[in-house]
Amino acid sequence: ENNIYTINIDEAAIDKYGQWPFKRDIYANLIDDLYKHNAGLVIFNVLMPEKDRQGGDDKLAKVLKDHPVVLGNVPADKTKNEPKAPGAAIIGAEFQESIITYPGIIANIKELEEPAAGVGISTTLPEIDGVNRRLPMVVTVGDKIYPSISLEALRVVAGDSTVQVKLNELGVEKMRIPSFGPVTTDALGRIWIDWSQKSKSVSMTQLPDNFDGALVVVGVAAAGLGNPVPTAIGPIWPQQLHASVIGTMANGVTISRPAWADQVEILTFVATGLLLLFLSRWTYVGLAASVILLASSIPLSRYVFSNHLLLLDVTMFLGGTVLVLLHAYGIKFVSEYLQKQQIKKQFGTYLSPAMVEKLQKNPELLQLGGESRELSIMFTDVRGFTSISEHYGKDVQGLTRIMNRYMTAMTAKIIENQGTLDKYIGDAQMAFWN
Question: Most buried of 20, 64, 87, 384 (most Cβ within 10 A)?
Fold first, then answer.
């Protein structure tokens, strides 16, 4: 665990202090108590965009003057109140729109913004699946760049007056807090969050005796008042999210997805797909290779992340490889099934079921070549067929019926005894065995 605390305004606090929102002298007393318990810096992530109708603003403003506190603002469709001027030094200001941009910002009232040691944006930016894995460290509102509440907290701790950001046409090129060092982000100014960065979480009604200089993040956690944030480790409260972000940066954890990751993943998938298509010629060899490659991909990606903090996404590799296998073995299955049906159609009437099954299992037996064997050959014909034909005279259908009955019975017995019917020759049959 990091030396970071999250202080929750939870149900116990509601029970103790009454209806929400609290009178702001309660906030003032809380901040004062936190510093009396040896807090290093308080990040107060409770938005206060209107004056306190119960008259607690003056006391809270005095506490903010006496103690360093970082407040939070939120982005919005239009601006409300005048936000405190951000401490951000920009190189390449003409490229500000290349990072995350909002049309407006909701700030705290001026009486509270001005005496605060710092003010940062409290926002999230979920991935396409709605889960937060990265958090923007800077955003553009109007013609200014505002730091996140987490980055602003580090700036205040470092004692610097500015956060330095260098932009280019692709977005953020570099970012640093002079006394702290560089902060590695992607082009949109986001950092990957290390969820192993834990904080200690307590209720505002049960403060520890000594924070030992810890950073303290205060936020709402009462049911119905605060909204949990969906993350890779499940829903957590915003103050816990910011604590993990601060821990990630403070400990120099640089999780990255390299620019070449997409190309490597695509090339790996293509190479693997071609290899498995080739190996599918030998059914069991191809299946064994497929199982090994698929089963090893996830541990490999975990190893790369654990040892090098590189994010390689095996989702496309797994999904694409499974589709390749389904395609290859699906075609192979259908082709073999159709081949077996064709063999059955062509030879089922003439060969014994055992011989047809043998050909279906090994169609190569149909190839030219063969082998020498000693056969038993039987020729049969109908005794007196000429006299029988004359007897029926013009009743050709009658003759056909009686011959069909005869041929059907003979054929059935030949096949029943695993013989091969070679041909019909008028009223005669030729069959052989072995």
Answer: 64
